[in-house]
Amino acid sequence: MTTFTLKILRDTVLQQKLLPLEELADQEKHSVPAGTEFPIHSYLQVVDHLRFTLEHHTIAGCSIWYVNADDIQLLKDGGIVQTLEHPAQRGHGTSELCRRPPIIWEPSPNFSSRNGTPIRRIILHCTATNSLATVLSWFRHPDCQVSAHYVVARDGKIYQMVRDSEKAWHAYGENADSIGIEHVADVHEQLSPLQEHSTIALIRWLMAEYRIPSYAITGHRFSPSHPGDITCPHHLFGDETEEALRRWITRNLA
What we know:
Blueprint: E1 4-8, E2 12-15, E3 29-32, E4 37-46, E5 49-54, E6 64-68, E7 72-76, E8 79-80, E9 104-105, E10 111-113, E11 121-126, H1 132-140, E12 150-152, E13 158-160, E14 166-168, E15 178-183, H2 193-210, E16 217-219, H3 242-252
Parallel strand pairs: 9-13, 11-15, 11-16, 12-15
Antiparallel strand pairs: 1-4, 1-7, 2-3, 4-5, 5-6, 7-8, 10-14, 12-13
């Protein structure tokens, strides 16, 4: 008989419902410390959480809970289950070589098929507004015909809007083989410290997951189909030059 064990890697909160923590009643959430282990009967991946059923006992009278997949390790018959598939990665990707940072799933209807084209590069963007709500709302609108795979907010939170396996509409003529990452910022702003930390973690994971070399990371205006016709990613990486972007990539990703 297969035995599953759920190990808590860092202090986290179990949830009875998949809602923001602030919307849950006290009895619907339960704090657990790192190192805690639970024998579980079954589990199901739900977006970026794991829904699990406890094997022999309950917590606060409940046997079914949700937990953030980034905060746990799943063991099967004593061995580590290496990858819990995130729906954003379904259909693409290699074994996990670098830990995926926490990601919030905010789906956009604006995407199409890659038609089997492999992911080969990453294109970096600036939203030209520092309003996260505006960016998410715009990318979720079916009439805008624009999207990106990821949006990195000023506070460092990462939102995914299109699955990696699908084609986001972020750089005309360049979408089929690329991952598009938008950074929330005004045209005169550079990356905030938290934003920079998160985008480095995200890009490093994508580089490992899809074997993307650092030279295959570029800014929107420096991609082959857009030489000189746009200014994105503006001042995110310092000067509005490819040299400034390449220095940032060399310093943080090479």
